[in-house]
């Protein structure tokens, strides 16, 4: 969902159901992350991840740096947008996840 945006919940639901595309593996990771109380509030939203994918493809990025990896939900979305020889570099202050 779009966090911080003051959109009607029906609009947010519509965007989530029709505008966001995720793979089965992404869905499984998202569900696990959202089902864990400790990580749910910190999980990146998939609508924002999809916008980042568009930006990556538009500028034909070959390398992406992500700060704050958590469980890797956004990391996977970023990696999907990169070419086969692309690279995602992630930085986090814990190795817990």
Describe the protein.
By secondary structure, the chain is mainly alpha-helical. Helix content is 51%, strand content 10%. The chain contains five helices and two strands. The chain has a two-stranded parallel sheet with strand order 1-2. Helix 5 links the parallel strand 1 and strand 2. Helix 4 runs parallel beside helix 5. The protein is globular. The two termini are 22 Å apart. 12% of the residues are buried.
Write the layout of secondary structure elements.
Elements: H1 9-19, H2 24-35, H3 37-40, H4 46-58, E1 63-67, H5 73-81, E2 87-91
Parallel strand pairs: 1-2
List keywords for this structure.
97 residues; mainly alpha; two-stranded parallel sheet; 5 helices
Number of helical runs?
Answer: 5
Distance between the termini: 22 Å
Order of helices and strands: HHHHEHE
- Which overall shape is indicated by the principal axes computed on the Cα atoms? globular
Strand fraction equals: 5-15%
Rg calc: 14 Å
What is the average of the pLDDT values? 85
Arrangement of strands in the largest sheet: 1-2
The biggest beta sheet reads: 2 strands, parallel
Total beta-strand segments: 2
């Amino acid at each position: 969902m779009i966090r911080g945006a003051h959109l009607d919940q029906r609009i947010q639901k519509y965007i989530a159901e029709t505008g966001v595309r995720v793979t089965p593996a992404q869905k499984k990771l998202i569900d696990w992350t959202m089902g864990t109380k400790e990580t749910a509030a910190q999980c990146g939203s998939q609508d924002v991840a999809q916008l980042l994918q568009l930006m990556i493809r538009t500028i034909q990025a070959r390398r992406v740096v992500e700060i704050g990896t958590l469980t890797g939900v956004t990391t996977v979305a970023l990696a999907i947008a990169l070419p086969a020889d692309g690279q995602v570099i992630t930085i986090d202050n814990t190795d817990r996840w």
